[in-house]
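Service request form, structural biology core

Requester: graduate student, group of Dr. S.
Request type: structure prediction, single chain
Budget code: on file
Notes: please return the result as structure tokens.

Sequence provided:
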Amino acid sequence: MNYHLGHIPVSLINEVIRRKWITYFRTFIVLKYEYTNVAFFKNKEQPYNDTKDVLNISDKTFRRHLKMLVNFGFLGVDKNESYYIRSYNHLRTAYGLKKTRKVEVTLKDINKANFKSYLYGSAVGFLALKKQNRKKWEVLKKDGINQSHKFLKYQEVKYDFSIPLSARYLVYYLNTSKTFINKELRIAKEKGYIFFEKDIRQTGLTDKNISHILRLRQGDGVYPFSSGGFVYLSYPNKFKPTLGYKREKK
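Core staff response, request fulfilled:
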């Protein structure tokens, strides 16, 4: 059975991805949800024995992760040298993160083989969700709907959008390379953490025009290419979130 564990702030996930702390963050998350009632432990053997089946890492690696998590401020150490687990609110304040949305996390997601895909799917899904909601309300306003708030919410869900997100923006937002983000999102899609589809349109021009179109192309926008004797335009991929998000309390 795939147990629902809770929700993780998306702003914290974004920070972890940008700083390349994914492996350490996974250890933190496993500890956090293992010790939901007792937020501290007095020695390193106890938490390792409790979580080693889930973490699937060596004792040496676990100890290194604890040291790094203390350095990052994700764990604290008291005067008795007992470790305690920082709250999400504390980490948001410490890193100057805004309250936005939280994303669901389950036991399956913290599996070693899934965790990185889960984080990338969560981060990009949130970007698509923000643009999706903005686009829905723009459509509602454009359609001249002027009814109760309850009716607007009902009407809102009737619009089904796949939101384009450029590779250039994702590279900037997540502080990584285009090749890497494309690879990670492809794996995340295969595992069901994000949905996206390519947006390719035929121009009707023959491939004799491709060299001229390439000369006119500027920046990192739409990319023209030829296939089967015709020219096509490749637009940014269209994304949809697949995970569950909810607002953080103010």
